[in-house]
Design brief:
It contains eight helices and ten strands. The chain is an alpha/beta fold and 261 residues long. The protein folds into two domains: 169 residues, 3-Layer(aba) Sandwich (Rossmann fold); 61 residues, no CATH class. It has a six-stranded mixed β-sheet with strand order 6-7-8-3-9-10, with helices on both faces. A four-stranded antiparallel β-sheet has the order 2-1-4-5, with helices on one face. α7 crosses α8. The longest helix is centred in the C-terminal third of the chain and has 18 residues.
Amino acid sequence: MSERAAAGIRIERVVKIFGDVGITALNEVSLDIAPGEFVSILGPSGCGKSTLLRCVAGLDTPSKGQIVVGGVPVSAPPEHLGIVFQRDALLEWRSVIDNLLLPIEFRGGDSRAVRPHAKALLRMVGLEGFEDRYPSQLSGGMRQRVAICRALVDDPMLLLMDEPFGALDALTRDQLNIELQRLWLANRKTVLFVTHSITEAIFLADRVVVFSPRPGSIADVIHVDLPRPRKLAVRTSELFHGYAGRIRTLFEGMGLLKEDE
């Protein structure tokens, strides 16, 4: 497949109010994300991280403000968008390769022409030879690898990821962090990645956007100056600990982290 250019994102003073329950989820959120940038959004539960992601995806509408993807204001799901949620949402009655090809079928494309690309993605995440298996025959980590490949199979300009590894064990999560980094380095798509993990946010991102408790607003934006490709051992470095300490200090100031004296 020919590589499609990444898309930039502009989020302009976005407010989201759920009127039926009178809850302000997002308050004056503004952020520019460059094409090809990997940005993590980090914050406590209920702070509006996933709400912002849904607004970028065109699955929800801001109450105020505007979101622009690739120069086009978002009023519906943008074209050439890939999404990965915490649950893999694979179709149990379809094989791995047929799950991957589902987005191609939805847009009326030639799935046969895309099969070599789909197999190459599976090879990149260590699933070569599993093309004809069914989701019930895979582990949780393998299923999530398939979900990531499915999001990438249509060569999206933008990849949105909402806690994709949150339900996995620590070792599988670490391995998928490495594989996601490898995939991103290979195609340099724009990635907006929601997580609760400080370590994961720093390891993956060019920038970490730290959200305040609800109503969610941007408390800080941290530029991560660590060379790529990153190995897990970078998490023991002084620089990495400095980033993590800065984020923990922010959370302590918000009253989210407390230690007994």
